[in-house]
Amino acid sequence: MILTTAHYDKARATIAGRGFDADMQTRISLFLGAAKSVNAAILGAVEMQPRITIAYPFVHGQYFREVEFAVLLARVTRWSSNWATYAEGTRLTTSLWRQWWQIQWPAGPTLNPRSAYSALALGHALLARVRTAPLIPDNANETDPFVAALRRIEQESGRMIQAQIRLLKDADSPLPLDERERIIEAKQLEVDEAFRRFLAWLAGDAP
Amino acid sequence: MATPAAQFAEIDGHRIRYTLTGDAGLPLVTFANGLTQNADLWTAYGAKLADNGYRVLAYDMLGQGQSTKPVLGIELTEHADLLAGLLTYLQVGRTHLAGISFGGVVALDFAIRHGEQLAGLAVMSSFAELTPQLELLGNMLHEGLTQVGLPYLQSMLYPMNMSSAWLAANRTRIPAMMRSGYIGNDLYALQNLMESFVTFKPLTPRLKEISAPVLLMNGEYDFFTPRECHELLRRELPNCRLTLVQHAYHAFTVELPDVTLRQLHEFFRSVDDGNWVGDGSVWIASDRADGEPHAFPCPGDHMRALPLPALPVSPARAPARVGARRSTPKPARAGSGRPADKRRPA
Fold this sequence. Notes:
The complex is a heterodimer.
Chain A: H1 5-18, H2 22-47, H3 56-76, H4 83-103, H5 108-111, H6 113-129, H7 145-170, H8 177-203
Chain B: E1 7-11, E2 14-21, E3 28-32, H1 43-51, E4 55-59, H2 76-90, E5 95-100, H3 102-113, E6 118-124, H4 132-147, H5 150-161, H6 164-169, H7 174-184, H8 187-195, E7 214-219, H9 227-236, E8 240-245, H10 252-255, H11 257-273, E9 279-285, E10 295-297
Parallel strand pairs in B: 3-4, 3-5, 5-6, 6-7, 7-8, 8-9
Antiparallel strand pairs in B: 1-2, 2-4, 9-10
Helix pairs in contact in B: 2-3, 4-5, 4-8
């Protein structure tokens, strides 16, 4: 299903009505934190490789930024005491983790060009499609640490994605163009579907 | 007329979202979007043109809205080929085509390479080649997008494209409009559209191949694609006229929809009725949405921002001297069938 403004609007209206209460903050942080953690895990694999290329400074910087944001969310969130929120959040983010686990199946990104390209494509999809700033309602307190963190993360994701864009477009790959495009589209669809379910969860609909 | 439901077509492996307004069999008008726009921007145009006997096709171009957004890049020529494919898919025959800004370039490319599918062409706020100013402006926008992000690009485009009056009147709506644009666009897709100009070859050498009637429209104060861009088109296109839109900046299709729609409607009608005269003349659009005339001949030097009368010879060849006499400009004559602007460069 294609993400539309309507998906955002319903979630945003719910947040505008009840505010960024602990349960809402928890939901957002569980999903956004998972997106950051999955990308950090992908980038962490590059950290362990001995080869230094021109892309390394960008990937290295992004790795630490993603870790920073996962920690930032943990710090600024008013965590809910409702266990069901965590259970549902875990269920919704499992698909993001599953994608990364599948990419690591032998021979994995280090030895398999297709896996390496898939990992990059997954990171690209996470940075491009998981966007929470449009959920912030007009009546939100912009000086609230949680709101400020969402803004900060969104802005930085918009910058960091340049590493994935350049690598996906310009880096040498033995994969034919058609296959590369298929991989990118597949990752985007999977992330979009997870994010759509997340938005429905925020809106109060059954995902 | 009710807003048409969006439909999807599969063209050359790409998903294309489109809307068709109006009855089948009526003359078709197709709109090509600006860089950050989508098909929904033409909903009001579609409704009004449909009420006046036209069928309107609007679509999200590659990289826009809900159409496919390739990550690995797009060649600029793909857009025109895709439009040709969409028209064939819809089995709609020839079309009038109106494109603004980025969409104007696509429309020109379409006219050059798919002219057999074209009835009339309206090119608004656009260009055939990157002037140094336009190239550097484009670089700045690209840098803003990649170094700061999509919201920054949006923040730049609003004051560049709209008048102070419009910005003041819509100030409270702008955040919601930006939010909607942010959700509907993807940074990497816009970046691809911009980067497709890296390999862009000027269309100027092939403009003379466009035999279809062409209406050029340029905002009075458009500093993004200023008069020189449209003057180049006017000089090269064999069957065109240039209409200047009063008080308008780059995005007059959004800011002055009624004025724009009227000019487009008059153009399409004159082409369909066989009354079009593509004499290279320069006109000024009425700033009213009704009443006659819909446009009047430009009485002065259309290349100047200062309200000076036209010089008898090119300033480059004979610099104007203080106190020198200037001839009284003769307005372009409608339907004269010959160039009204005697200074039209060779």
